[in-house]
UniProtKB/TrEMBL annotation, chain A:
It comes from Magnetospirillum fulvum MGU-K5. The complex is composed of two ATP-binding proteins (CysA), two transmembrane proteins (CysT and CysW) and a solute-binding protein (CysP). This is Sulfate transport system permease protein CysW. Signal peptide: none annotated. SUPFAM superfamilies: MetI-like.
Automatic annotation (TrEMBL), chain B:
The chain crosses the membrane at residues 12-45, 65-89, 101-123, 135-159, 191-212, 218-238, 245-266. It is found in: Cell membrane. This is Sulfate transport system permease protein CysT. It comes from Magnetospirillum fulvum MGU-K5. SUPFAM superfamilies: MetI-like. Belongs to the binding-protein-dependent transport system permease family. CysTW subfamily. NCBIfam families: 3a0106s02, permease_CysT.
């Protein structure tokens, strides 16, 4: 029975919002796709099946496969500590967890060079033991984990705080173990937040450019991730190839995001159906 | 909502020591120790050298563009993000769910790709550029271009923080306001906006924080003129190109402190607001 | 209850550690797998040489196989010259570096990874090919650009990358400076005024040479691109029919040098291989490939064969005019150097 805007204003607002999104979201995406498909779908798929492109795709998936689970683990642990307990310095701790988010990618890459570079703290020791961190996969994984560090945690902390502690306390008092409580009470409550955090974390892990560019070494077929490969192809005048790989990244992300919101909407519909009955 | 009494010495929920220990340990290894290396490196500078860096007009101009541009971009995102969230939550129209999903796209697109795409769009020959260039508006390769890129990367944040709060607003409050004779606009400014304010502020701050450090997309569209359209991260890169590690880390350290203070302020604000709300409810 | 919790938690931590460990091992194994089969060499190079080394590497691998029967894999890394030099300094294990300017290899040598006398180890200043700086203009040369002083005319829009971040841009800048120095009988003040006027006409400073080429050819910005000769010829081939090359009567002799990274090859045991790779660049076969990729070959016979593509330009060297890269770098491109002054005055 809410008194709503007149349909004129309603459509005006929709038009405004869509106009803004069109300008800043749809057009850039369309520009990428137009370039990628500029020479037909044959060239598009040929670009994606080049060995170097394939190596970059594999490396990107591998890096995400390591960085995302680690961040899920950290996010769950950290949000449990922060949301379920009171302690001094909590605000400071949250700010520190957020920090990688606002650090410029240039700096995120640089700090690992300062640590593991040959002129850095551990560089010579690592080289003497023949361990490669920088300009190899471990360095890329580290930089990616740094950049995506806050995403799961910052999605979960407010959610868990909002849900309070009563349910967990009740479960514990009733004799459930801490881990069981976490699995059966906390986790189901935050699963949508967790899913959203994981998707964001994954999208960022696969798309990170600046920080990874500093630590990768750009060795073709070995240490180029998809975003770096895009840059290389672009610099080789292979615009179709560059935007084909870029569009693959965008489409991967878009598909997961659509799947996620479809799930969420469905759940919401179920809930409202339950409420009405 | 009854709050756990902080003074209570005995905790029902187990695992505090373990989870906090793991959190602090992992945070130190992955974030704090690497960032410390920055400050150690930068500490090689004398006070005079620090002052020289701060007094450099080129450094000042870069900080003005990075922070000023990010501020403008975050303001645009706050207004547009609120509008988008409102439309997505309140109205039904074809393609709504697809658009809802697309909002996170700037997150997934590598920043360099975003920069190339935006530069291609806004260049004089581009789809948008050829429309606005005759009007005398130059976006690509000007400071305005940097702001466009910053709006793009910060776009998801306001929408995503405002959206859930907007969904939770009790329609009864609005109905009550309406039945008391408030117009739609009055209801919005007096009832809805104050409720949204904290989320809006958080989203604004997040968009700002993200835009300040942005590099990949901005360098493709900004023009990169020293003192004019050069951002701080580029200044760091320029120093590195001259093998001036200390100078680069010094600027990085200043940036890092600025963003940390910013985050502390955001989180403090959020906490203060939550306390205020819970006190109001009690 | 507490022990229950911690046992479960420990299990979780262990499982996570196991998964991460396995994934890490897999990650380490993937690059290793390719490397184990055959000997590898890593060539860390600058941006525009991708096509060149693709061809050169294929030829060298073939000739090495014919000579020794050994399979070889040459990995390539490309990026801005300074950025690449920094990566090697920071531990990128390059067996050989092939960069845009001697200054960048000097920077690696200063950190002890290359013998300080590297430049005299190979013929011709360790530069197996040369290039020069030319102009790329739009079809029909509508602004009638013929020489350097046409670039400072009002209304001419000039594209060049940022000398602070691009090796190629430093050659561009020094070529312009050298031109005016020559014209004004070594008047440094005039050279600075000339270069300032030139940068006054520059609307975009891209961070790399390829970035500038893209800005000029793809974005349609500018009337003239100052570029490597090889870069300009390549752009002509990539986008046919839209551009023309104008070679100024006087320009700079660019000598992109190559060097074996001593510390790395000694650890890898690849010195002999790396040295034969670099000497290969001077062979007629490689010189022919170099010429076909639009770089000026050192070999006089090959140069004669391709003379049509490389118009005669009077060339001055950086050693003659600027006293070498070290001096040029400190005077012009260091912080507080002449370029910093020029860029401020150019936008006044």
């Amino acid at each position: 029975m809410r008194r709503d805007e007149s349909s004129l204003i309603r459509w005006l607002l929709i038009a405004l919002a869509l106009g803004f999104l069109g300008l800043f979201l749809v057009l850039p995406l369309a520009a990428v796709l137009a370039q990628a498909l500029g020479k037909g779908t044959g060239a598009y798929f040929a670009a994606l099946t080049q060995p170097d492109a394939w190596a970059a795709i594999r490396l990107t998936l591998l890096v995400a496969a390591i960085a995302v689970p680690v961040n899920i683990g950290f996010g769950l642990v950290a949000s449990w500590a922060i949301a379920k307990f009171d302690f001094r310095g909590k605000s400071l701790l949250i700010s520190l967890i957020d920090l990688p988010f606002s650090v410029s990618p240039v700096i995120s890459g640089l700090v690992f060079v300062l640590l593991f570079g040959l002129q850095g703290w551990f560089g010579e020791t690592l080289r003497d033991h023949n361990i490669r961190v920088l300009f190899a996969v471990p360095g890329i994984v580290l930089a990616t984990m740094f950049v995506t560090f806050p995403f799961v945690a910052r999605e979960l902390i407010p959610l868990m705080e909002e849900q309070g502690r009563e349910e967990e306390e009740a479960a514990i008092v009733l004799g459930a173990g801490g881990f069981k409580t976490f699995l059966t009470v906390t986790l189901p409550n935050v699963k949508w937040g967790l899913l959203h955090g994981v998707l964001l974390c994954n999208a960022r892990a696969m798309g990170e450019f600046g920080a990874v560019s500093v630590v990768s070494g750009h060795i073709r077929g070995l240490t180029n991730t998809m975003p770096l490969h895009v840059e290389i192809l672009y610099n080789e005048y292979d615009f179709v190839g560059a935007f084909a790989v870029a569009s693959l990244l965008a489409l991967l992300a878009l598909l997961t995001l659509v799947a996620k919101s479809a799930l969420e909407w469905r759940l919401r519909d179920e809930i409202s159906a339950l409420r009405q009955s | 909502m009854p709050k756990n009494n902080p003074a209570k010495p005995w905790r029902v929920i187990p695992g505090f020591g373990l989870t906090l220990g793991l959190t602090l340990g992992w945070l130190s290894v992955l974030v704090l120790i690497p960032l410390t290396s920055l400050f150690v490196m930068a500490s090689g500078l004398s006070l005079d050298q620090w002052l020289a860096i701060l007094a450099d007009t080129r450094v000042q101009a870069a900080f003005r563009l990075s922070f000023g541009g990010a501020l403008v971009a975050a303001l645009i995102n706050a207004a547009a993000g609120l509008l988008v969230a409102w439309v997505l939550v309140r109205y039904d129209f074809p393609g709504r769910r697809l658009i809802d999903a697309m909002v996170d796209l700037p997150f997934a697109l590598p920043t360099a790709v975003a920069g190339i795409a935006l530069a291609a769009l806004y260049a004089p020959q581009g789809w948008i550029g050829q429309l606005i260039e005759p009007l005398g508006i130059k976006v690509a390769f000007t400071p305005l271009g940097a702001i466009v890129a910053m709006v793009f990367v910060g776009l998801p944040f306001v929408v995503r923080t405002v959206q859930p709060v907007l969904e939770d607003i009790d329609s009864e409050v609005e109905e009550a306001a309406a039945s008391l004779g408030a117009g739609r606009w009055q209801t919005f400014t007096r009832v809805i906006l104050p409720t949204l304010a904290p989320a809006l502020l958080t989203g604004f701050a997040l968009a700002f924080a993200r835009a300040v450090g942005e590099y990949g997309s901005v360098i493709f569209i900004a023009g990169n003129f020293p003192g004019l359209s050069e951002i701080v991260p580029l200044l760091i890169v320029v120093r590195l190109e001259q093998y001036d590690y200390v100078g680069a880390t010094a600027i990085a350290a200043i940036m890092l402190v600025a963003s940390f203070v910013l985050l502390l302020a955001i989180n403090g604000l959020q906490r203060w607001n939550r306390d205020r709300l819970s006190r109001g409810a009690a | 209850m507490t022990s229950d919790w911690s046992r479960d938690a420990m299990r979780l931590v262990l499982a996570t550690a196991l998964v991460v460990g396995a994934a890490m091992a897999l990650a380490a194994a993937i690059p290793g797998a390719g490397a184990a089969e055959s000997r590898t060499l890593l060539n860390v190079s600058y941006d525009p040489t991708r096509e060149l080394y693709q061809d050169l590497n294929a030829a060298f691998v073939k000739s090495w196989k014919a000579k020794t029967g050994e399979d070889l894999r040459i990995n390539q890394s490309h990026g801005g010259s300074g950025k690449q030099a920094r990566a090697v300094i920071d531990g990128l294990e390059a067996d050989v570096v092939t960069l845009a300017l001697a200054y960048d290899i000097d920077a690696i040598a200063q950190r002890g990874q290359i013998d300080p006398k590297w430049q005299s180890r190979l013929a011709a200043n360790s530069a197996p090919y040369t290039s020069t700086i030319v102009f790329l203009v739009r079809k029909g040369n509508p602004k009638a650009i013929k020489d350097w002083d046409d670039l400072v005319r009002p209304g001419v829009s000039v594209i060049t990358p940022n000398p602070k971040t691009s090796g190629g841009a430093r050659w561009n800048y020094l070529a312009a400076w050298g031109y005016e120095l020559n014209r004004s009988n070594n008047d440094a003040a005039k050279a600075e005024a000339f270069t300032t006027a030139l940068f006054h006409n520059v609307p975009v400073l891209d961070t790399g040479a390829r970035g500038s080429t893209t800005t000029f050819t793809q974005r349609g910005i500018g009337d003239v691109l100052i570029a490597w000769e090889n870069e300009a010829i390549l752009a002509l081939k990539e986008v046919p029919g839209q551009f023309e090359i104008v070679a100024p009567p006087l320009s700079i002799l660019a000598e992109p040098p190559v060097a074996v990274v001593d510390k790395v090859v000694d650890r890898h045991g690849t010195r002999a291989l790396a040295e034969s790779y670099l000497s290969f660049l001077y062979t007629p076969e490689a010189q022919e490939i170099i010429a076909r990729n639009h770089y000026r070959p050192r070999d006089p016979d090959i140069a004669k064969k391709h003379a049509a593509e490389f118009p005669p330009v009077r060339l001055f060297t950086i050693d003659d005019v600027f006293g070498g890269w070290g001096k040029a770098q400190t005077a012009h491109f260091a912080d507080g150097g002449i370029f910093d002054r020029i860029i401020v005055n150019a936008k006044k």
